[in-house]
Amino acid sequence: MVKELHDHRDHDGDRRVPQTDESALHIATPSRRAAGVPGVTHALDHTLTELGPVRTARTLARLNQNHGFDCPGCAWPDPEHRSPAEFCENGAKAVAEEATRAVAGPAFFAEHSVEELRAWDDHSLGKQGRLTHPMLLDTGATHYRPVSWDEALDVVASELLALRTPDEAIFYTSGRTSNEAAFAYQLLVRGFGTNNLPDCSNMCHESSGSALTETIGIGKGSVSLADVAAADVIVVAGQNPGTNHPRMLSTLEKAARRGARIIAVNPLREVGLEKFANPQEPLSIARGGTTLATDHLQIRLGGDQALFQAWGRVLLEAEEAAPGTVFDHEFLRSSTHGLEPYLEHLRALNWAEVETATGLTQAEIRTTAEALLGSRRTVVCWAMGLTQHPHSVAMLRDVVNVLLLQGNIGRPGAGVCPVRGHSNVQGDRTMGIFERMPEAFHDAIDAEFDFASPREHGLDTVGAIGAMRDGAAQVFVGMGGNFAKASPDTAVTEAALQRMRLTVHVSTKPNRSHVTTGRRALILPTLGRTETDAQASGPQRVSVEDSMSMVHASRGRLDPASEHLRSEVWILTRLAEKVLAGRPGAPVVDWAAWRADYRLIRSAISRVVPGFADYEARLDLPGGFVLPHPPRDERRFATPSGRAEITVNELVYPRVKPGRLLLQTLRSHDQFNTTIYGLDDRYRGIHGGRRVVFVHPDDIASLGLADGQVVDLVSEWTDGVERRAEAFRVVAYDTPRGCAAAYYPETNVLVPLDSFAKGSRTPTSKSVEVRLEVRAAVTA
Ligand SMILES: Nc1nc2c(c(=O)[nH]1)N[C@H]1C(S)=C(S)[C@@H](COP(=O)(O)OP(=O)(O)OC[C@H]3O[C@@H](n4cnc5c(=O)[nH]c(N)nc54)[C@H](O)[C@@H]3O)O[C@H]1N2
Ligand SMILES: Nc1nc2c(c(=O)[nH]1)N[C@H]1C(S)=C(S)[C@@H](COP(=O)(O)OP(=O)(O)OC[C@H]3O[C@@H](n4cnc5c(=O)[nH]c(N)nc54)[C@H](O)[C@@H]3O)O[C@H]1N2
Ligand SMILES: [Mo]
């Protein structure tokens, strides 16, 4: 936090630093309708400036099409019948960000020292454009200099081979890496001798994976697009699809037109959930859009476990009043375990506690429970609002409980739908990017590649930061992502990275992690999804898996931003040759052949990972193919009991000290995680700035503050360390009392490293206790 303080003074004092100018900040009334004409024109504006008209037309025409490339934005699946413009405003922005013609080459790095660049924010860094050359920051050097690929990879190999043990290396992955690259990566890492494979998922849907694996035996969602469209009731909890999964709105719209009841559970009235004007349908726009959510439960942060327990209780009461009308007894008897203790737990539910936890009235909860009662097909969708709390795993087990009571898993039109973030985060996990893969996976790679993979579990994201901080790790490799900014406790994470002997980032664009370096640092520039990946056997395609277990091909067509870019597969296989050549016990792989022809990687995957038989041929099918999912396909639950587990979870909800607020850290409409596209959050009425904190008007008054005042956010955590995010403008906003919101990643400095969810170790980004401190005098 000391650093953040310092940086901020720099920004104010030095006008040459391209910093976000918060004096342009302008607050307007939040909008009431998502997407539609403003959405599309906004996207085209953005793309046109980055790409120019011809490149824009060529690029967008291939986005999410059968022979095109997969959108590098979110992981929402593609519909079977695609419209010619199968993309959304934010997908177009994600593409523009990657396909931009601006470049950050050797001249840029020669002009600016690393120290100077550390005073820039991520918006300014990213705007420089695409990386073009491998760049090395030598020990003691002030500037990065261009190096050959050979030299760069020799540096990585020599630092890795000099470690006392392979466990001193950390291999992080973000969620854009293709299946092929992910599979090669995990094999290189395990061949080197460690399971230290933390990924962005540790900070994202890990709680979903943990809760679902325990209860239904597989950590993935159980629905298809058709199921969502066919549901009677769709609960959308802790998710802002209008911004983060805009194409989901078309599916919700279909369901809404069929009469489905959509229940939004969210502390904020997210505009996309209220009204949606389909950009592909002029009529829908003319009519002012479709109303999506018929009910909005404006829940307090972290109150969802109480809500789901209360819903379970109402279902139980109705079942007891008219036995056989609510529960799916046949399913409960044949396929579940643990019903009775759960029902006992529901009978003991304390309504007063539920009302405190949720901030909702018993009447509101009962009315919405009636919708569940009358539904034969219920889907529950969720994202970060449910996964980033201390009690998220228990909360999600309670979500599963409610669905199981009515047999709503493994039936058409029903199921669990954790909506994933990064476009291939689910596929990366399937390919083995995980610090604790199941034994069966290890057995399979050992057999295929004739080696003995390490079995001891590796470090997850929180564990990796601790190890780096404590000197137990010396080399950090990031396959995509922005570890310095995306991780919690920014000051701790940055200091941890700076203790490394070597930090390496395989990236497309400059970001904060490149300037938060170890003693030596490398930036390895890579091809993006949109670009042609030409190898010895010809242009390559890669494959990805969406949120609903559909695997499909992606093929880039644009000319690469620089002739020096290499594909992730190229980089990893070259590195594998350098690190593993002659190493006793290394996996037996012809890395050069893999690099020349990715079909060989897919062929290996098809022998190792269940569900990938005929991988190559099935990638040719329009839309690809779906992976097996036992609960969805055959109501089979691969838990230790062989049945779906109904669980008893003690009711937990956050409580903060008087005079404090609970803060959630969330995304604006103009960013992709740590990549900031622009400074507007138009749906929430924010323009020209990001340092705002949304607070209920009565809280503003009771804290003795005023709307528009500038405050510091100070985190309150048990360790007594001061974590401070400076200079946020207070914005009166429609959020429950006691529950504030501000943007990620500016607020990551406030999330303590050891504040994470029980059972998944996901940082508690939606549950940070803060106090607001008035700033003496502000220059803005
Ligand atoms: N354009 C764009 N698309 C993206 C991303 C992006 O940054 N930009 N990020 C991608 C990634 S990696 C991810 S994981 C997803 C994230 O998608 P989201 O989860 O939608 O992202 P957040 O902005 O974190 O929003 C959290 C939502 O949950 C609500 N919420 C917060 N706390 C609670 C709670 O306790 N209970 C309930 N019921 N609701 C709560 C918030 O008000 C907000 O609406 O989006 C993916 N898609
Ligand atoms: N406080 C707070 N913290 C959070 C969250 C939150 O809600 N609140 N959300 C968490 C979540 S859900 C997630 S998923 C993480 C995200 O954490 P990360 O995945 O680490 O972060 P991103 O910002 O998505 O990574 C962006 C960088 O990826 C690189 N990149 C982009 N495309 C490619 C590509 O095709 N290949 C390669 N090699 N690199 C590429 C670019 O250089 C870009 O700068 O953050 C987490 N952190
Ligand atoms: Mo995510």
TrEMBL record:
Domain Molybdopterin oxidoreductase: start-end pairs = 130-507
Q: Which terms are listed as keywords in the entry?
A: 4Fe-4S, Iron, Iron-sulfur, Metal-binding, Molybdenum, Oxidoreductase
Any GO CC annotation of this UniProt entry: membrane
Enumerate the residue ranges of region (Disordered). 1-25
What cofactor does this chain's UniProt record say it requires? [4Fe-4S] cluster; Mo-bis(molybdopterin guanine dinucleotide)
Please report the name of this protein according to its UniProt entry: Putative formate dehydrogenase oxidoreductase protein
Compositionally biased, Basic and acidic residues: which spans?
A: 1-19
Name the InterPro entries on file: Asp_de-COase-like_dom_sf, MopB_CT_YdeP, MoPterin_dinucl-bd_dom, Mopterin_OxRdtase, Mopterin_OxRdtse_a_bac, Prok_molybdopt-oxidoreductase, YdeP_MopB
Q: Which residues form the Molybdopterin dinucleotide-binding domain?
A: 661-768
Entry-linked Pfam families: Molybdopterin, Molydop_binding
List the Gene3D superfamilies: 3.40.50.740, Dimethylsulfoxide Reductase, domain 2
Which GO molecular function terms does the record list?
A: 4 iron, 4 sulfur cluster binding; formate dehydrogenase (NAD+) activity; molybdenum ion binding; molybdopterin cofactor binding
Question: What does the similarity note say?
Answer: Belongs to the prokaryotic molybdopterin-containing oxidoreductase family.
